[in-house]
Amino acid sequence: MEGRKNTEAEILRAAKKVFIQHGYAGARMQAIADEAKINKAMLHYYYRSKDALFEKIMDGAVDLMSRQFISALSGDKPVMEKVEAMVSNYTDTIIKNPYIPIFILNELARSQMNFQNRLLQKLEQDNLFMNFLAQIVQEQQSGILRPIPVPQFMITIMSLIVFPHIAKPVFLKIFKMADKEYMHMMEERKEYIMDFLRKSVML
Questions:
Q1: pTM of the prediction?
Q2: pLDDT tens for each residue of 116-136
Q3: DNA binding happens at which residues (predicted)?
Q4: In sequence order, what are the residues at sequence separation of 6 or more whose Cβ sits closer than 8 angstroms to the Cβ of residue 2?
Q5: SS3 label, residue 97
Q6: Backbone angles phi, psi at 130, to 5 degrees
Q7: Is the model's pLDDT at 28 over the cut of 70?
Q8: What are the φ/ψ torsions at residue 118 (nearest 5 degrees)?
Q9: Which one of 26, 80, 90, 135 counts the least CB within 10 Å of its CB?
Q10: How far apart are CA 132 and CA 86, in angstroms?
């Protein structure tokens, strides 16, 4: 049983690397088998198709990100405390799992409705997301937050968190930075994001 778990974990690690390097369309099962140091027959024993392998990784990514979202939005904290938890949780998760933004982009390009349905299903649990949106409006009406349209509010937050990770290869070249240095900058960026948001959205 332990050997099976180790083999499957190695397949998933290899698949993440190959999908990131070549995208969904360019990834080949043989390349994944080679990266995992197993033969193709063994790979097909665990995952019969590239679709099945991609779906497994994507399910894990959506579940991981939605759990961070739910954790950040739970409780009776003010909006900006929840936003700070969201920024921290998402940044830490992406730093530890750098494949996630690329996988989400690939899935949006490959099967937009499939990804949307998965994400909405997770976010609709316990109405946490809708309650959070209502809380934003309430704090705007109470004079705590600026009256920014809620979609703009959320898109700004998510863009500030996610875009630097999606564009990481470009920024590494532009700023001539090593990967480790860039990841350290992403860790520091949590404070910059919150400082920017407080000045931008709070009255």
A1: 0.84
A2: 777 777 777 768 889 999 999
A3: 28-47
A4: none
A5: coil
A6: -65, -35
A7: yes
A8: -60, -50
A9: 26
A10: 12
